[in-house]
């Protein structure tokens, strides 16, 4: 078993929990606006899964047939602007929020380091997760987490298309993940120098962060205490997956969503029942 790098886990868990809490804040502000309009709980399990499968299929086909890097970079740029603008609009007027979102994008484009990558991911994931989470009921998100956890295992261990897709997108200049260095000063490292599983750098995919964040936001409609329970539970799941990764003799990709989803559920149940 490798030595557990507590510094690296502190960086990873700080970003992870930061995204969860920011998504909760944005979700709370969105719910304040949506309640009078009765626009909540509009997404069904079937609609989400169909949309998820279609999006995955389109992405896989695009990766196979579209060779130009700029197409994928433009898609990532779009996601950064949308997610960041959602976050900033929960605090500031629309025009100022748009300017701040563009500043996040400019920082990501002009200073391509681990720090700017993680900042961009923080705003992007929190904003998009909050906007989706407010439209989900708790039963729907629980079914989604169960289905996607099984999918995660199959996609990593069986078909391996998740790993191939991630590496291909990375080669095209799109990193759909937070990137965690072994030491804090590693945040200044250039993204072009990052290689999965090498140099003490670890990665956590956007889905492994976004789905528990959606769960926490959806649970806000029950109580804030239950949402905090989800966040704490997801952190425990992150710790479990980190220990399992550290225990590997040879660093290989692992499906992170199953333990994160399971402990998120445990956190929700404990917070609800206590």
Write the layout of secondary structure elements.
Layout: H1 6-34, H2 45-65, H3 69-89, H4 94-110, H5 114-133, H6 138-158, H7 161-171, E1 177-180, E2 202-205, H8 206-219, H9 224-247, H10 257-273
Antiparallel strand pairs: 1-2
Helix pairs in contact: 1-5, 1-8, 1-9, 3-4, 3-5, 4-5, 5-8, 6-8, 6-10, 8-9, 8-10, 9-10
Secondary structure: helix percent: over 70%
The spatial strand order of the largest sheet comes to 1-2
**Secondary-structure-derived class:** mainly alpha
For the secondary structure, the number of strands is: 2
The fraction of residues assigned to DSSP E strands is: under 5%
Structural features, described:
The protein is mainly α. The protein has one domain. It has 10 helices and 2 strands, in the order H-H-H-H-H-H-H-E-E-H-H-H. The chain has a two-stranded antiparallel ribbon. Helix 6 packs antiparallel against helix 8. The longest helix has 29 residues. About 2% of the residues have low confidence.
Question: Key features?
Answer:
3% strand, globular, two-stranded antiparallel ribbon, mainly alpha, 274 residues, single chain
The gist of it:
The chain is mostly helical and 274 residues long.
